[in-house]
Every structure is written in C-alpha cells, then in structure tokens.
C-alpha cells in the first residue's frame, strides 16, 4: 500500500485491493473507525456529482458556510507542517519541508485544511440547519455505540 501514500495508485487499483481484502466482521456486528469508508464516500461524491471531491467541498460546504480560508487536497496552500515529521519523511509521505507528497490519497480521509474561524463558521452552519435537513441531522447526531460522526458525548456531565 506504500504506492497509495505516494499517489502512485489509481482509484481503480485501490478499489480492487479493497474488494480483495478479507471482511473483518459480519455487517453490523462491531463498530470500528475506518478512514477507508471516508475515502469511499469521496469516490461516491465524485461519481454522483461529476465533480472532483475538492471542488465539491468548495462549492457545497466551504462557500455556503463562509469558510474563506479552507481548502482540500491543495499542498501548495498548506500553512503549517508538523514540528517533527521525521517518520513521515522516512516513509516518503512528506517532502523535506514536511508538506504532503500525496494529496490525492488524502481525498476523503484527510487533506482538509481550515482555521479556527472557518471551523466555527462550519459549526454554526451545520447546527443552524444551513447544511442538512432535520432528518439528516438526526442521523448525524445518533449516538451509535459511543460514536456520533466524530462527536463524542461528554460523560462527565
């Protein structure tokens, strides 16, 4: 899978490898986090919309929310790098400056850069009904085995 991290693998090749992988659990038996599902979601968005994933996010998420400093899959616009990226550099995931070498492989499961003010704009748009209808929000906020679309319950209250 090293080629995946260097953008040296096509979507078709990735899907072929994915479909050949063994199933870990029967459907519905266990909830485990998987970046692969987000990557598949990005593929579905591209197929259904006819747009590149990054363009879709810009048109339907970033702009409607007023997120002026957010982008996806744009290595040339990175405004930060990790303090210590030695391990990523040795693996070949970043260049000598710490910038990603594989923006395409981050499609769906990473590669979105934002800032605090844009994140706040997204949060306000999401929870004020600008992005999803009531039925979709109920699905989003349904706590399923302690996981709620990245939103974790505060068990201290």
Structure notes:
With about 160 residues, this protein is mostly helical. Helices cover about 40% and strands about 5% of the residues. The protein has six helices and two strands, in the order αααβαβαα. The chain has helices at about 10-20, 35-50, 55-65, 85-90, 115-125, 135-140, and strands at about 70, 110-115. A two-stranded antiparallel ribbon has the order 1-2. Helix 3 crosses helix 5.
Question: Could you list some keywords that capture this structure?
Answer:
single chain, mainly alpha, two-stranded antiparallel sheet
Beta content comes to under 5%
Give the helix level as a range of percent.
Answer: 40-55%
Rg from alpha-carbon coordinates? 17 Å
Across the major sheet, the strand order is 1-2
Please write the string of helix (H) and strand (E) elements.
HHHEHEHH
Q: Strand count, sense and closure of the main sheet?
A: 2 strands, antiparallel
Q: What separation lies between the terminal Cα atoms?
A: 43 Å
Low-confidence stretches: none
Q: In total, how many beta strands? A: 2
Summed over residues and divided by their number, the pLDDT gives a mean of: 80
Overall 3D geometry? globular
Number of helices: 6
**Coarse structural class:** mainly alpha
């Amino acid at each position: 899978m090293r080629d995946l991290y260097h953008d040296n693998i096509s979507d078709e090749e990735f899907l072929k490898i994915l479909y050949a992988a063994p199933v870990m659990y029967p459907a519905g038996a266990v909830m485990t986090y998987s970046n692969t599902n987000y990557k598949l979601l990005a593929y579905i968005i591209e197929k259904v919309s006819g747009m590149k994933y990054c363009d879709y996010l810009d048109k339907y998420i970033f702009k409607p929310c007023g997120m002026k400093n957010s982008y996806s899959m744009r290595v040339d616009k990175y405004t930060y790098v990790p303090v210590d990226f030695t391990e990523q550099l040795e693996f070949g995931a970043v260049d000598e400056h710490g910038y990603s070498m594989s923006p395409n492989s981050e499609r769906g499961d990473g590669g979105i850069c934002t800032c605090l003010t844009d994140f706040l704009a997204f949060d306000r748009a999401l929870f004020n009904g600008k992005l999803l209808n009531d039925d979709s929000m109920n699905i989003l906020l349904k706590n399923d085995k302690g996981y709620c679309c990245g939103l974790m319950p505060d068990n201290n209250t």
